[in-house]
Specification:
Structural class: alpha+beta
CATH architecture: Orthogonal Bundle
Strand order of the largest sheet: 1-2-8-5-3
Number of helices: 12
CATH superfamily: Cytochrome P450
Bound molecules: protoporphyrin IX containing FE
Distance between the termini: 33 Å
Number of strands: 12
Number of domains: 1
Shape: globular
Radius of gyration: 21 Å
């Protein structure tokens, strides 16, 4: 079984006059475009975001790197695993549980709180910001859950709350009340849990692969790369040419926009044998799940580490998909992720001490 939304098959580059953009979807084309130094990042709809301030960019990378260094220690390894086991044990006591709401999101919030250094008084405030931002995509115009557009005032209200939440986060960071970088806050509160949800769902839909990973954990490094390829959450990226460029068959003129179909490229049969098959023993040959080139994911180390540390705690409880409950999705012009994945467990995970940041989440 595939992951609900199969990407469209890769095809030769073409200029879409309706969208006024080039569409690239073959692995070789998308790979080359991501590495093209004269392409700049733009949003899906809007105009060019303009040149990025190099000082702000290097500060962002330095702050993020400090968090990555902290999270690369043994203490952090243990902390991430303990939080996962505690949550898994609580979830395993229930008949059927939506792992996105009851395991994955609380895990990422607990990790974020622990990393932030927030004192007790700030924790609730910070958790509610993370919660609001994690759920923001469910309220987006392009939400896959809400087929009907929501009334304008609801959208405006959510937008206003998100703006306030971000401003509050900036205040806490600015006053030194919390120490987490903004990129890590967003990464750990939104992108990372979204990917964990889609990666675990991919395993649940392939019980043979799930079982192999549980009983033969030495496949984990390959499984992580395969899950980034098969179940990456970023389906599309957007660029604009700052110069005329010839990219394979595409003659792209200055100022033209380029739509990069990452998900299709990760399923290109010229690059990957039987690309629609999830195979955790597949030899990694360079997937595009975290991007590549000048804007490649700066949190990649943590994404790989988190998936490989937390997945064994999940598998240890012998999860099976609850087929009686629907799988719900949400998404936008760049990301697609599941918001409800119901699971039954056969066993407890393993014994661990409760982590201080879990009790406070009211679980
Ligand atoms: C700890 C979690 C994460 C952090 C801190 C993080 C951080 C970042 C940052 C800072 C960038 C921008 C780099 C730049 O423009 O110089 C980036 C890009 C990117 N991230 Fe992540 N990320 C995280 C998780 C993820 C996950 C889970 C995925 C998908 C599975 C992902 C996919 C991407 C992709 C595809 C890009 C490239 C965007 C582009 O080329 O336009 N990230 N990430």
């Amino acid at each position: 079984m595939d992951l609900s939304f199969s990407p469209s098959p890769p095809e030769a580059p073409r200029y879409d006059s309706g969208l006024k953009a080039w569409i690239l979807s073959r692995y070789a084309d998308v790979h080359a475009a991501l590495r093209e130094p004269t392409f700049c990042q733009v949003s899906a709809r809007g105009p060019s975001t303009g040149p990025v301030d190099p000082i702000a960019l290097s500060q962002m990378h330095a702050e993020l790197q400090a968090d990555i260094d902290r999270m690369s220690t043994e203490v952090w390894r243990e902390r991430m695993v303990n939080i996962a086991h505690t949550l898994m044990n609580q979830a395993a006591d229930r008949m059927s549980v939506n792992i996105v709401d009851h395991v994955i999101q609380p895990w990422s919030t607990a990790v974020m709180l622990s990393l932030s250094g927030a004192d007790h008084a700030l924790e609730a405030r910070l958790s509610s910001i993370a919660d609001l931002l994690f759920h923001k995509r469910e309220n987006d115009e392009t939400s896959l859950i809400e087929k009907e557009p929501r009334p304008a005032f609801v959208k405006k209200w959510f937008k206003w709350r998100r703006k306030n939440a971000e401003a509050d986060l900036d205040r806490m960071r600015g006053s030194g009340q919390i120490t987490i970088s903004k990129s890590m806050f967003f990464g750990v509160s939104q992108t990372l849990p979204s990917f964990l949800a889609k990666a675990w769902l991919a395993l649940l839909l392939h019980p043979d692969q799930l079982e192999m990973l549980r009983t033969e954990p030495h496949w984990m490094p390959y499984a992580v790369e395969e899950l980034l390829r098969y179940a990456g959450i970023v389906h599309t990226l957007y660029r604009q040419a700052t110069k005329d460029v010839v990219l394979g068959d595409a003659h792209i003129a200055k100022d033209e926009r380029i739509i990069l179909k990452l998900e299709s490229a990760n399923r290109d049969p010229i690059k990957f044998d039987s690309p629609d098959r999830l195979d955790i023993t597949r030899r990694p040959t360079g997937n595009l799940g975290l991007g590549v080139g000048p804007y490649a994911c700066a949190g990649g180390v943590i994404v790989r580490k988190a998936l490989s540390l937390v997945t064994p705690a999940f598998l240890a409880a012998h999860p099976i998909l609850d087929e009686g409950a629907p799988i719900l999705w949400t998404g936008d012009t760049s990301i697609r992720r599941p918001v409800a994945v119901s699971v039954r467990f056969w066993k407890q995970s393993v014994e661990v001490r409760d982590h201080p940041h879990i009790g406070k989440l009211g679980l």
